[in-house]
Amino acid sequence: MTGKKFPLGKILILVTILALPGFLYYLLQAKGKNRYKPLPVFGPKVVASTFRTKRGVKIPDTVYHKITFPQLYNSGGNTVKLDTEGQHLTVVNFFYINNKNVVPALNKGITTLQEQFKDNKRIRFISIDVDPKNDTIDQLKQYAGKIGAIPQKWTILTADTAITYPLARDQFFVNAFQPKEGEFVFSDKLILLDAENRIRGYYTGTSDDEIRRISDELKVLITEELRKVKAEF
Q: Which of 137, 191, 184, 188 is nearest to 159 (CA)?
């Protein structure tokens, strides 16, 4: 008895279906190495006295640097305390209103990210002012509206320089100081924090390529947080 011929078109479709998962795996592993690797943790770290066991081997725990936020004020003049571990992935930058070179480009990048992640309540953006003497609360409120900062999504914060400059230098490890009257030195970096307030990345906020990179790495952190939640159940 002669077997029925299997149509060539169906054979090609079947081969494509079987090959697609392997091809996608190749893309993720070979073509997307930087995008899908776990992100590093920046800052000082110490080996703890506690440990975890993996496959019968005791591995010492590592205590990583975490940002400890001081008391800051938002553009409504209200006190804000940002130590909310486990709730948000945070992108932080430093700025001042009258800067015409770096800050507009920084804001453009943050606006792009804000639009991409506007529906994700776990992601927030924090801009910290370094010129509180000239940038009043009322000016900051107007400024937030001007740059399109969505309330509860992108927050403009301020405090005395005795608070914000050490915060930049000692917590985020970036520059923020006033060398002389009317001049300010501050970093053009966007700084990515995970849900434990650990630094997971630095990005040049004026670069389109770097904005795409932080966008990708925010997605990596979202996946990391989802895995943690899954592991708890």
A: 137
